[in-house]
Amino acid sequence: MQMISLRKAIGGAIAAAILTAAAAPTHALELRFGHGGTEDTAYHAGAKRFQEALESASDGDLSVTILPNSVLGHETEMFEQQMAGA
């Protein structure tokens, strides 16, 4: 008897999750790619290639903003911001 109740509860939870996911609007996700190099460095060329590959593969669901010249800070500062969720 308990096994049937457990199966019903799991089935209900799965159904609720599917309905919630289906009803939730999809939003594009924007990523920020910060680096310390100028726009004429390999860092920036790699960032541009990453941006092009990701945006074309995601059909517009993902976008990448490139922030060169340590706009977001140096590597240590960017890592700290990432860990803090900023």
Structural write-up:
The chain is an alpha+beta fold. It has one domain. The chain contains three helices and two strands. Strands 1-2 form a two-stranded parallel ribbon. The termini are far apart.
Number of helices: 3
Oligomer: single chain
What is the terminal-to-terminal distance? 49 Å
Order of helices and strands: HEHEH
Number of structural units classed as domains:
1
Mean pLDDT: 77
Residue fraction in strands: 5-15%
- Class from helix and strand fractions: alpha+beta
* Whole-angstrom Rg: 21 Å
Strand element count? 2
Helix content: 55-70%
Placed side by side, the strands forming the largest sheet appear as 1-2
Question: What general outline do the C-alpha atoms trace?
Answer: flat
Q: Stretches where pLDDT falls below 50 for ≥5 residues? A: 19-24
User: Main beta sheet, described?
Assistant: 2 strands, parallel
Q: How would you concisely characterize the structure shown here?
A:
By secondary structure, this protein is of the alpha+beta class. The protein has helices spanning 2-23, 42-57, 75-84, and strands at 29-34, 62-67. It has one domain (2-84).
